[in-house]
Specification:
By secondary structure, this protein is α+β, with helices and mostly antiparallel strands. The protein is 50% helix and 23% strand. Residues 249, 253-254, 257, 281, 283-286, 294, 299-302, 306, 311-317, 340 line the site of adenosine-5'-diphosphate.
Amino acid sequence: MSWFARGEVEQLRRDLDHERVARGAIEAEIERLHAGFDAVPVGIVLADERGKQLVRNRAAALGGHVELLVEEAVERLLASAVGGTAAEQRLTLFGPPQRVLLIRGIPLAKGGGLAVIDDLSDRARVDAVRTDFVSNISHELKTPVGALAILAEALADSDDIEVNRHLALKMVEEAHRASGTIDDLLELSRIELGGPGDREDVSLSAVVGEAAARHRLIADTVGVELQVKCISPESVQGDRLQLVSAVSNLIDNAVKYSNKGGIVTVSAHEVNGCVEIEVADTGIGIPARDLDRVFERFYRVDRARSRTTGGTGLGLAIVRHVATNHGGDVTVRSREGEGSTFTLRIPMGEGS
Ligand code: ADP
């Protein structure tokens, strides 16, 4: 016996099928919505009008020891958003690594609220580096410009021709120092902005030859022997100007930080698919504690020596940038009083 007529059963089956299809479609939409939320790079927590959290995307799950602090802020801002008031809080979490988060509570038009967690750590780091850089530049330029002002005042007050000559020569020296810093800054920003630059087949011996030629005269003048040894392979894929600049900076340092009678050797070899350009000197060397820092902008081991040799503190930062632009790196081995060897490693690239 059946409680339904045959036609009614058919209808019921059709209705159930429709409902199943409709529910499937809604579930697929919800899944798509969740996937969309998860793909957003900022943290999102959505609450209904009673403050119950409905959705929390992947970026909102911060984990670790920061979780509690963030959760507390999210709950407070969400409650305020649900109550109709927008508010925000900037959280600085001392790491390491240090993190800076901006958490905002946003009321929604139809009730409920949204908490948005924005990770500003990278931006904060870039800002800090920029501020540091600007203050370094100001300091670097202030020194020679200040000296120029003092020398010019002394010049204006002096009638003695010999004293004037001496002051004028000092002024030239300070002007060169300031323009050296500006030249290196321009070079550094050209290389930074230029990125990987033009990739072409570059002759290694031409790169090394050009870089060495720039320093031969000064090396002879200070009594340092500059030797170019075996250069192989013949070529490497890269940006010629950047490579000349990098090798030139390494040779410049090797000569600058050598004493009379010192020897600077430049060579290049292929090692495991990379060209290794080595610049070795028998100079003053670098203390072990400074080895990691010499590639930082404006870092000098000995400020006084760098000042007398006209160093800008930017040479090795330029070399490191060139290496990175070429997918390579630069390393140093050194012993105080015995000398240093810098190795610029550049992948040879396809077809080399
Ligand atoms: P600078 O213009 O002062 O030479 P660099 O960025 O080229 O700046 O180098 C940073 C610091 O690293 C230098 O001030 C110097 O103390 C040290 N340094 C670099 N190359 C050598 C080297 N070949 N021998 C000894 N010290 C070096």
